[in-house]
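[audit] Reproducing an earlier prediction to check determinism. Same input, same settings, fresh worker. If the C-alpha coordinates differ from the archived copy the diff job will pick it up downstream; this log only records the rerun itself.
[audit] input (487 residues):
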Amino acid sequence: VLPEIFEHERFSTTVANAVLSPLISGYVNRLQERLGSQGYDGDVLLLHSGGGVMTPKLAERYAVRLAASGIAAGAIASRHLATLCGFPNAIGFDMGGTSTDVSLVYEGEERVSKEWFVEYGYPICFPSIEVLTIGAGGGSYAWIDEAGSLRNGPQSAGANPGPACYGRGNDKPTNTDANLVLGRLGGNLIGGAMELDRAASERAIREHVAEPLGLSPVEAADAVIRVANANMADAVRLISIRRGYDPREFCLVAFGGAGPLHGAALAEELSIPTVLVPPSPGITSALGCLLVDVRHDLSAMFLAHVAAVDKDALEAEFERLGVEGRERLSAESVPAEQMSLQRLVDMRYVGQWRSLTVAVSAPVDLDEAVDRFHAEHERAYNYRRDDAPVEIYRLSVRAAGVTPKPQLKRHESTGERGEPKGSRPVHFDASADAVDTPCVVRSELAAGTELEGPAIIDQLDSTTVVPPGWQAEVDEWLNIRMKRKHA
Protein backbone atom coordinates (compact mmCIF):
# COMPACT_ATOMS: atom_id res chain seq x y z
CA VAL A 1 0.00 0.00 0.00
CA LEU A 2 2.77 2.44 0.92
CA PRO A 3 6.27 1.19 0.03
CA GLU A 4 8.15 3.89 1.95
CA ILE A 5 10.32 4.23 5.03
CA PHE A 6 8.98 5.47 8.39
CA GLU A 7 7.26 2.53 10.04
CA HIS A 8 4.60 4.46 11.95
CA GLU A 9 3.36 6.36 8.89
CA ARG A 10 3.40 3.22 6.74
CA PHE A 11 1.58 1.18 9.40
CA SER A 12 -1.05 3.86 10.06
CA THR A 13 -1.81 4.31 6.36
CA THR A 14 -2.02 0.56 5.79
CA VAL A 15 -4.35 0.01 8.76
CA ALA A 16 -6.65 2.84 7.64
CA ASN A 17 -6.72 1.36 4.16
CA ALA A 18 -7.51 -2.12 5.51
CA VAL A 19 -10.39 -0.78 7.60
CA LEU A 20 -11.92 1.16 4.72
CA SER A 21 -11.45 -1.37 1.90
CA PRO A 22 -14.37 -3.72 2.73
CA LEU A 23 -16.67 -0.74 3.33
CA ILE A 24 -15.72 0.94 0.06
CA SER A 25 -16.01 -2.37 -1.79
CA GLY A 26 -19.59 -2.74 -0.58
CA TYR A 27 -20.49 0.84 -1.46
CA VAL A 28 -19.00 0.59 -4.93
CA ASN A 29 -20.60 -2.77 -5.72
CA ARG A 30 -24.03 -1.50 -4.70
CA LEU A 31 -23.54 1.67 -6.71
CA GLN A 32 -22.60 -0.26 -9.84
CA GLU A 33 -25.51 -2.67 -9.41
CA ARG A 34 -27.95 0.21 -8.96
CA LEU A 35 -26.62 2.05 -12.00
CA GLY A 36 -26.71 -1.12 -14.09
CA SER A 37 -30.31 -1.85 -13.09
CA GLN A 38 -31.27 1.59 -14.39
CA GLY A 39 -29.64 1.06 -17.76
CA TYR A 40 -26.33 2.84 -17.24
CA ASP A 41 -23.50 1.11 -19.12
CA GLY A 42 -20.81 3.81 -19.01
CA ASP A 43 -17.70 4.11 -16.89
CA VAL A 44 -17.82 4.61 -13.13
CA LEU A 45 -14.97 6.76 -11.84
CA LEU A 46 -14.44 7.78 -8.23
CA LEU A 47 -12.78 10.99 -7.10
CA HIS A 48 -9.76 10.58 -4.83
CA SER A 49 -8.15 13.10 -2.52
CA GLY A 50 -5.17 13.60 -4.82
CA GLY A 51 -7.34 15.47 -7.29
CA GLY A 52 -8.02 12.76 -9.85
CA VAL A 53 -10.40 9.89 -10.46
CA MET A 54 -9.82 6.14 -10.43
CA THR A 55 -11.74 3.00 -11.28
CA PRO A 56 -13.80 1.06 -8.71
CA LYS A 57 -11.22 -1.74 -8.75
CA LEU A 58 -8.41 0.60 -7.74
CA ALA A 59 -10.67 2.36 -5.25
CA GLU A 60 -11.19 -0.95 -3.46
CA ARG A 61 -7.42 -1.52 -3.43
CA TYR A 62 -6.54 1.99 -2.24
CA ALA A 63 -9.72 2.86 -0.33
CA VAL A 64 -8.03 5.35 1.98
CA ARG A 65 -7.45 7.61 -1.01
CA LEU A 66 -11.18 8.34 -1.09
CA ALA A 67 -11.00 10.00 2.34
CA ALA A 68 -11.35 13.79 2.06
CA SER A 69 -12.04 13.50 -1.66
CA GLY A 70 -15.23 15.56 -1.52
CA ILE A 71 -13.55 18.66 -0.12
CA ALA A 72 -10.73 18.23 -2.66
CA ALA A 73 -13.34 18.77 -5.39
CA GLY A 74 -13.95 22.26 -4.03
CA ALA A 75 -10.25 23.06 -4.35
CA ILE A 76 -10.28 21.79 -7.94
CA ALA A 77 -13.25 24.00 -8.79
CA SER A 78 -11.52 27.00 -7.17
CA ARG A 79 -8.45 26.46 -9.32
CA HIS A 80 -10.47 26.08 -12.52
CA LEU A 81 -12.63 29.16 -11.98
CA ALA A 82 -9.75 31.35 -10.80
CA THR A 83 -7.55 30.32 -13.74
CA LEU A 84 -10.43 30.93 -16.14
CA CYS A 85 -10.72 34.47 -14.77
CA GLY A 86 -7.00 35.18 -15.01
CA PHE A 87 -6.01 34.53 -11.39
CA PRO A 88 -3.13 32.02 -11.16
CA ASN A 89 -3.14 32.30 -7.35
CA ALA A 90 -6.34 31.60 -5.45
CA ILE A 91 -7.55 30.68 -1.98
CA GLY A 92 -10.61 28.45 -1.93
CA PHE A 93 -13.05 29.37 0.84
CA ASP A 94 -15.84 26.79 1.12
CA MET A 95 -18.15 27.59 4.03
CA GLY A 96 -21.09 25.27 4.48
CA GLY A 97 -23.43 24.40 7.32
CA THR A 98 -20.96 22.70 9.67
CA SER A 99 -17.42 23.50 8.57
CA THR A 100 -15.19 25.69 6.45
CA ASP A 101 -12.69 24.16 4.04
CA VAL A 102 -9.75 26.29 2.94
CA SER A 103 -7.44 25.38 0.05
CA LEU A 104 -4.68 27.13 -1.87
CA VAL A 105 -3.79 27.32 -5.56
CA TYR A 106 -0.39 28.72 -6.52
CA GLU A 107 0.66 29.38 -10.11
CA GLY A 108 -2.31 27.39 -11.37
CA GLU A 109 -1.71 24.28 -9.25
CA GLU A 110 -3.39 23.09 -6.07
CA ARG A 111 -1.07 22.66 -3.11
CA VAL A 112 -0.57 18.94 -2.55
CA SER A 113 0.52 17.38 0.73
CA LYS A 114 2.24 14.01 0.98
CA GLU A 115 1.05 13.55 4.56
CA TRP A 116 -2.18 14.49 6.28
CA PHE A 117 -3.84 13.45 9.52
CA VAL A 118 -7.17 12.01 10.56
CA GLU A 119 -8.66 12.13 14.06
CA TYR A 120 -6.25 11.61 16.97
CA GLY A 121 -3.31 12.52 14.73
CA TYR A 122 -3.00 9.31 12.71
CA PRO A 123 -1.04 10.04 9.52
CA ILE A 124 -2.21 9.12 6.02
CA CYS A 125 0.67 9.28 3.58
CA PHE A 126 -0.88 9.46 0.13
CA PRO A 127 -0.59 12.63 -1.97
CA SER A 128 -3.70 14.69 -1.28
CA ILE A 129 -4.81 18.18 -2.15
CA GLU A 130 -4.18 20.13 1.01
CA VAL A 131 -7.44 21.34 2.52
CA LEU A 132 -7.61 22.83 5.99
CA THR A 133 -10.96 22.25 7.71
CA ILE A 134 -12.23 24.07 10.78
CA GLY A 135 -15.54 23.91 12.63
CA ALA A 136 -17.03 27.14 11.33
CA GLY A 137 -20.27 26.95 9.36
CA GLY A 138 -23.73 28.40 9.21
CA GLY A 139 -24.85 26.01 11.93
CA SER A 140 -21.87 26.54 14.26
CA TYR A 141 -22.94 27.49 17.78
CA ALA A 142 -21.99 30.75 19.46
CA TRP A 143 -21.32 30.15 23.16
CA ILE A 144 -19.70 31.65 26.23
CA ASP A 145 -16.84 29.71 27.80
CA GLU A 146 -16.03 29.41 31.52
CA ALA A 147 -13.84 32.51 31.37
CA GLY A 148 -16.70 34.57 29.95
CA SER A 149 -15.29 34.79 26.43
CA LEU A 150 -17.39 34.48 23.29
CA ARG A 151 -16.55 31.37 21.27
CA ASN A 152 -17.73 30.08 17.91
CA GLY A 153 -17.90 26.39 17.00
CA PRO A 154 -16.75 23.75 16.45
CA GLN A 155 -20.02 22.35 17.80
CA SER A 156 -22.78 22.68 15.24
CA ALA A 157 -26.55 22.41 15.00
CA GLY A 158 -26.09 20.78 11.61
CA ALA A 159 -29.05 20.59 9.26
CA ASN A 160 -31.29 18.99 11.86
CA PRO A 161 -32.35 20.59 14.13
CA GLY A 162 -30.40 23.39 12.47
CA PRO A 163 -30.23 27.03 13.58
CA ALA A 164 -32.84 28.45 15.95
CA CYS A 165 -34.53 30.23 13.05
CA TYR A 166 -35.40 26.87 11.45
CA GLY A 167 -37.97 26.29 14.19
CA ARG A 168 -37.02 22.65 14.76
CA GLY A 169 -36.40 22.73 18.48
CA ASN A 170 -32.94 24.29 18.76
CA ASP A 171 -32.82 27.36 21.01
CA LYS A 172 -29.06 28.04 20.83
CA PRO A 173 -27.64 30.76 18.56
CA THR A 174 -25.66 29.96 15.43
CA ASN A 175 -23.90 31.99 12.75
CA THR A 176 -27.03 31.78 10.61
CA ASP A 177 -29.08 33.27 13.43
CA ALA A 178 -26.56 36.09 13.82
CA ASN A 179 -26.65 36.87 10.09
CA LEU A 180 -30.45 36.91 10.22
CA VAL A 181 -30.51 39.32 13.18
CA LEU A 182 -28.08 41.61 11.33
CA GLY A 183 -30.30 41.56 8.24
CA ARG A 184 -27.63 40.03 6.03
CA LEU A 185 -29.91 37.05 5.50
CA GLY A 186 -33.49 37.65 4.43
CA GLY A 187 -36.58 36.09 5.91
CA ASN A 188 -36.47 32.94 3.81
CA LEU A 189 -34.16 30.47 2.09
CA ILE A 190 -34.24 28.28 -1.04
CA GLY A 191 -36.07 30.86 -3.11
CA GLY A 192 -38.81 31.35 -0.53
CA ALA A 193 -39.47 27.65 0.07
CA MET A 194 -38.25 27.87 3.68
CA GLU A 195 -39.34 30.66 6.02
CA LEU A 196 -36.97 31.75 8.78
CA ASP A 197 -38.10 32.73 12.27
CA ARG A 198 -36.27 35.99 13.01
CA ALA A 199 -37.84 36.26 16.46
CA ALA A 200 -36.38 32.87 17.42
CA SER A 201 -32.93 34.01 16.28
CA GLU A 202 -33.17 37.22 18.30
CA ARG A 203 -34.30 35.28 21.37
CA ALA A 204 -31.41 32.80 21.09
CA ILE A 205 -28.86 35.58 20.59
CA ARG A 206 -30.27 37.62 23.47
CA GLU A 207 -30.46 34.78 26.01
CA HIS A 208 -27.17 33.04 25.24
CA VAL A 209 -24.87 35.88 24.12
CA ALA A 210 -26.26 39.39 24.59
CA GLU A 211 -27.41 39.18 28.22
CA PRO A 212 -24.33 37.30 29.54
CA LEU A 213 -22.03 39.85 27.87
CA GLY A 214 -24.13 42.95 28.54
CA LEU A 215 -24.69 43.69 24.86
CA SER A 216 -27.68 44.50 22.71
CA PRO A 217 -28.90 41.71 20.39
CA VAL A 218 -27.42 43.52 17.37
CA GLU A 219 -24.06 44.03 19.10
CA ALA A 220 -24.06 40.38 20.16
CA ALA A 221 -24.89 39.16 16.65
CA ASP A 222 -22.11 41.34 15.23
CA ALA A 223 -19.68 39.91 17.80
CA VAL A 224 -20.69 36.35 16.84
CA ILE A 225 -19.90 37.01 13.17
CA ARG A 226 -16.63 38.78 13.99
CA VAL A 227 -15.43 35.81 16.03
CA ALA A 228 -16.41 33.40 13.24
CA ASN A 229 -14.60 35.56 10.67
CA ALA A 230 -11.51 35.74 12.89
CA ASN A 231 -11.42 31.94 13.17
CA MET A 232 -11.72 31.55 9.41
CA ALA A 233 -9.09 34.22 8.77
CA ASP A 234 -6.70 32.29 11.02
CA ALA A 235 -7.34 29.18 8.92
CA VAL A 236 -6.45 31.12 5.77
CA ARG A 237 -3.27 32.38 7.43
CA LEU A 238 -2.29 28.83 8.34
CA ILE A 239 -2.53 27.62 4.75
CA SER A 240 -0.99 30.73 3.22
CA ILE A 241 1.29 32.86 5.40
CA ARG A 242 2.52 29.88 7.43
CA ARG A 243 3.42 28.17 4.14
CA GLY A 244 5.26 31.18 2.76
CA TYR A 245 2.46 32.62 0.61
CA ASP A 246 1.25 36.23 0.78
CA PRO A 247 -2.59 36.30 0.67
CA ARG A 248 -2.43 39.79 -0.87
CA GLU A 249 -1.22 38.11 -4.06
CA PHE A 250 -4.27 35.82 -4.24
CA CYS A 251 -7.94 36.09 -5.01
CA LEU A 252 -10.51 34.55 -2.65
CA VAL A 253 -12.96 32.11 -4.25
CA ALA A 254 -15.95 32.17 -1.89
CA PHE A 255 -18.46 29.34 -2.26
CA GLY A 256 -20.56 26.91 -0.29
CA GLY A 257 -23.93 28.02 1.03
CA ALA A 258 -22.43 30.51 3.50
CA GLY A 259 -19.12 31.46 1.83
CA PRO A 260 -20.43 34.50 -0.10
CA LEU A 261 -21.99 35.88 3.11
CA HIS A 262 -18.55 36.16 4.71
CA GLY A 263 -16.23 36.47 1.69
CA ALA A 264 -15.80 40.24 1.60
CA ALA A 265 -15.29 40.49 5.37
CA LEU A 266 -12.64 37.79 5.22
CA ALA A 267 -10.88 39.49 2.31
CA GLU A 268 -10.95 42.78 4.24
CA GLU A 269 -9.33 41.11 7.24
CA LEU A 270 -6.57 39.56 5.11
CA SER A 271 -6.09 42.39 2.56
CA ILE A 272 -7.06 40.08 -0.29
CA PRO A 273 -7.87 42.38 -3.23
CA THR A 274 -10.53 40.36 -5.06
CA VAL A 275 -13.36 38.03 -4.06
CA LEU A 276 -14.73 35.68 -6.72
CA VAL A 277 -18.19 34.19 -6.14
CA PRO A 278 -19.08 31.37 -8.60
CA PRO A 279 -22.50 31.35 -10.32
CA SER A 280 -23.80 28.50 -8.12
CA PRO A 281 -21.85 28.64 -4.84
CA GLY A 282 -23.79 25.83 -3.18
CA ILE A 283 -22.82 23.25 -5.82
CA THR A 284 -19.35 24.48 -6.78
CA SER A 285 -17.70 21.40 -5.23
CA ALA A 286 -19.89 19.21 -7.45
CA LEU A 287 -18.56 21.15 -10.44
CA GLY A 288 -15.05 20.23 -9.30
CA CYS A 289 -15.90 16.55 -9.74
CA LEU A 290 -16.44 17.21 -13.46
CA LEU A 291 -13.08 18.93 -13.91
CA VAL A 292 -10.70 16.13 -12.95
CA ASP A 293 -8.58 13.73 -14.96
CA VAL A 294 -7.87 10.06 -14.39
CA ARG A 295 -4.79 10.29 -12.22
CA HIS A 296 -2.38 8.02 -10.41
CA ASP A 297 0.45 9.05 -8.11
CA LEU A 298 3.30 6.55 -8.02
CA SER A 299 6.39 6.89 -5.87
CA ALA A 300 9.54 5.08 -4.85
CA MET A 301 12.17 5.73 -2.20
CA PHE A 302 15.50 6.88 -3.63
CA LEU A 303 17.87 8.04 -0.90
CA ALA A 304 21.01 9.58 -2.37
CA HIS A 305 23.17 12.68 -2.11
CA VAL A 306 22.76 14.76 -5.26
CA ALA A 307 26.53 15.07 -5.62
CA ALA A 308 26.94 11.27 -5.66
CA VAL A 309 23.72 10.14 -7.33
CA ASP A 310 23.81 7.37 -9.93
CA LYS A 311 22.07 9.14 -12.83
CA ASP A 312 21.45 5.89 -14.71
CA ALA A 313 19.77 4.36 -11.67
CA LEU A 314 17.73 7.54 -11.22
CA GLU A 315 16.50 7.47 -14.82
CA ALA A 316 15.79 3.74 -14.60
CA GLU A 317 13.60 4.24 -11.53
CA PHE A 318 11.69 7.07 -13.20
CA GLU A 319 11.21 4.88 -16.28
CA ARG A 320 9.87 2.05 -14.12
CA LEU A 321 7.36 4.37 -12.46
CA GLY A 322 6.39 5.78 -15.85
CA VAL A 323 5.76 2.32 -17.28
CA GLU A 324 3.57 1.43 -14.30
CA GLY A 325 1.66 4.68 -14.72
CA ARG A 326 1.01 4.03 -18.41
CA GLU A 327 -0.08 0.47 -17.65
CA ARG A 328 -2.62 1.70 -15.12
CA LEU A 329 -3.97 4.26 -17.56
CA SER A 330 -4.12 1.69 -20.36
CA ALA A 331 -6.07 -0.67 -18.10
CA GLU A 332 -8.58 2.16 -17.69
CA SER A 333 -8.92 2.55 -21.48
CA VAL A 334 -7.10 5.87 -21.64
CA PRO A 335 -5.70 6.39 -25.18
CA ALA A 336 -1.94 6.88 -25.37
CA GLU A 337 -2.30 10.37 -26.85
CA GLN A 338 -4.28 11.45 -23.78
CA MET A 339 -1.66 10.28 -21.29
CA SER A 340 0.73 12.66 -19.58
CA LEU A 341 3.50 11.95 -17.08
CA GLN A 342 5.00 14.45 -14.69
CA ARG A 343 8.19 13.72 -12.79
CA LEU A 344 8.65 14.96 -9.22
CA VAL A 345 11.53 14.72 -6.77
CA ASP A 346 11.38 15.15 -3.01
CA MET A 347 14.58 16.85 -1.84
CA ARG A 348 15.98 18.15 1.43
CA TYR A 349 19.18 19.47 2.93
CA VAL A 350 21.30 16.71 4.41
CA GLY A 351 20.28 16.30 8.04
CA GLN A 352 16.72 17.50 7.56
CA TRP A 353 13.74 15.22 8.16
CA ARG A 354 11.07 16.92 6.04
CA SER A 355 11.45 17.28 2.30
CA LEU A 356 10.08 19.57 -0.41
CA THR A 357 8.74 18.46 -3.78
CA VAL A 358 9.95 19.98 -7.04
CA ALA A 359 9.04 19.15 -10.63
CA VAL A 360 11.90 17.93 -12.82
CA SER A 361 12.48 17.42 -16.53
CA ALA A 362 12.87 14.18 -18.44
CA PRO A 363 15.73 13.30 -18.46
CA VAL A 364 16.44 14.83 -15.08
CA ASP A 365 18.64 17.92 -14.95
CA LEU A 366 19.98 17.70 -11.39
CA ASP A 367 21.45 21.22 -11.38
CA GLU A 368 18.09 22.66 -12.36
CA ALA A 369 16.34 20.48 -9.76
CA VAL A 370 18.65 21.72 -7.00
CA ASP A 371 18.08 25.34 -8.04
CA ARG A 372 14.32 24.78 -7.85
CA PHE A 373 14.70 23.17 -4.44
CA HIS A 374 16.67 26.14 -3.07
CA ALA A 375 14.03 28.55 -4.41
CA GLU A 376 11.16 26.51 -2.96
CA HIS A 377 12.92 26.23 0.40
CA GLU A 378 13.38 29.99 0.50
CA ARG A 379 9.72 30.57 -0.36
CA ALA A 380 8.51 28.08 2.26
CA TYR A 381 10.94 28.86 5.10
CA ASN A 382 12.38 32.28 4.17
CA TYR A 383 15.97 31.08 3.90
CA ARG A 384 18.18 28.97 1.63
CA ARG A 385 21.61 27.36 1.96
CA ASP A 386 23.14 27.24 -1.50
CA ASP A 387 26.40 25.83 -0.15
CA ALA A 388 24.74 23.02 1.86
CA PRO A 389 24.63 19.46 0.48
CA VAL A 390 21.25 18.36 -0.87
CA GLU A 391 19.88 14.84 -0.96
CA ILE A 392 17.09 13.13 -2.86
CA TYR A 393 14.51 11.43 -0.68
CA ARG A 394 11.78 10.15 -3.00
CA LEU A 395 10.89 9.97 -6.69
CA SER A 396 7.32 10.34 -7.92
CA VAL A 397 5.48 10.17 -11.21
CA ARG A 398 2.05 11.72 -11.65
CA ALA A 399 0.32 9.78 -14.43
CA ALA A 400 -2.76 11.51 -15.83
CA GLY A 401 -5.30 10.60 -18.46
CA VAL A 402 -6.89 13.78 -19.78
CA THR A 403 -10.69 13.66 -19.78
CA PRO A 404 -13.18 15.95 -21.58
CA LYS A 405 -14.12 18.95 -19.44
CA PRO A 406 -17.41 20.85 -19.41
CA GLN A 407 -17.14 24.12 -21.30
CA LEU A 408 -18.60 26.99 -19.31
CA LYS A 409 -20.60 29.41 -21.40
CA ARG A 410 -19.13 32.84 -22.00
CA HIS A 411 -21.59 35.74 -21.90
CA GLU A 412 -21.39 39.11 -23.61
CA SER A 413 -21.26 42.14 -21.37
CA THR A 414 -24.37 44.32 -21.35
CA GLY A 415 -22.99 47.18 -19.27
CA GLU A 416 -26.14 47.22 -17.17
CA ARG A 417 -26.42 48.16 -13.53
CA GLY A 418 -28.26 45.87 -11.14
CA GLU A 419 -31.81 46.96 -10.43
CA PRO A 420 -32.94 46.23 -6.86
CA LYS A 421 -36.13 44.27 -6.28
CA GLY A 422 -36.51 45.74 -2.82
CA SER A 423 -34.46 46.61 0.23
CA ARG A 424 -34.05 45.71 3.88
CA PRO A 425 -32.24 47.21 6.87
CA VAL A 426 -28.81 45.62 7.31
CA HIS A 427 -26.30 46.14 10.11
CA PHE A 428 -22.71 46.27 8.82
CA ASP A 429 -21.34 47.83 12.01
CA ALA A 430 -22.92 47.31 15.41
CA SER A 431 -21.92 50.83 16.45
CA ALA A 432 -23.95 52.40 13.63
CA ASP A 433 -27.58 52.33 12.60
CA ALA A 434 -28.87 49.79 10.12
CA VAL A 435 -28.44 50.75 6.47
CA ASP A 436 -31.37 50.46 4.08
CA THR A 437 -29.70 48.08 1.63
CA PRO A 438 -30.89 47.28 -1.90
CA CYS A 439 -31.50 43.59 -2.61
CA VAL A 440 -31.10 42.10 -6.07
CA VAL A 441 -31.85 38.65 -7.47
CA ARG A 442 -28.73 37.05 -8.89
CA SER A 443 -30.50 35.16 -11.68
CA GLU A 444 -31.49 38.55 -13.12
CA LEU A 445 -27.92 39.89 -13.24
CA ALA A 446 -26.40 39.80 -16.72
CA ALA A 447 -22.69 39.85 -17.56
CA GLY A 448 -21.29 43.33 -17.09
CA THR A 449 -23.76 44.28 -14.37
CA GLU A 450 -22.19 46.56 -11.76
CA LEU A 451 -23.27 47.07 -8.18
CA GLU A 452 -22.10 49.55 -5.55
CA GLY A 453 -22.04 48.42 -1.97
CA PRO A 454 -23.88 48.11 0.24
CA ALA A 455 -25.94 45.51 -1.58
CA ILE A 456 -27.37 42.07 -0.97
CA ILE A 457 -27.47 39.52 -3.79
CA ASP A 458 -29.95 36.73 -3.16
CA GLN A 459 -30.07 33.43 -5.02
CA LEU A 460 -31.44 29.94 -4.54
CA ASP A 461 -28.37 28.39 -2.92
CA SER A 462 -26.59 31.32 -1.27
CA THR A 463 -26.55 35.01 -0.37
CA THR A 464 -23.74 37.39 -1.30
CA VAL A 465 -23.02 40.44 0.86
CA VAL A 466 -21.41 43.47 -0.81
CA PRO A 467 -20.45 45.69 2.16
CA PRO A 468 -20.18 49.49 2.11
CA GLY A 469 -16.96 50.54 0.42
CA TRP A 470 -17.03 47.55 -1.92
CA GLN A 471 -18.18 47.18 -5.50
CA ALA A 472 -19.26 44.12 -7.45
CA GLU A 473 -19.35 43.23 -11.12
CA VAL A 474 -20.70 40.20 -12.96
CA ASP A 475 -18.03 38.90 -15.35
CA GLU A 476 -18.40 37.05 -18.63
CA TRP A 477 -18.58 33.70 -16.81
CA LEU A 478 -21.34 35.07 -14.53
CA ASN A 479 -19.04 35.06 -11.51
CA ILE A 480 -19.43 37.98 -9.12
CA ARG A 481 -16.14 39.83 -8.65
CA MET A 482 -15.98 42.01 -5.55
CA LYS A 483 -13.27 44.58 -4.85
CA ARG A 484 -12.65 47.45 -2.50
CA LYS A 485 -13.54 50.70 -4.26
CA HIS A 486 -10.03 52.04 -3.77
CA ALA A 487 -8.38 48.77 -4.92
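[audit] rerun output stored. Observation attached for the diff report: Residues 7-37 form the longest helix (31 residues).
[audit] end
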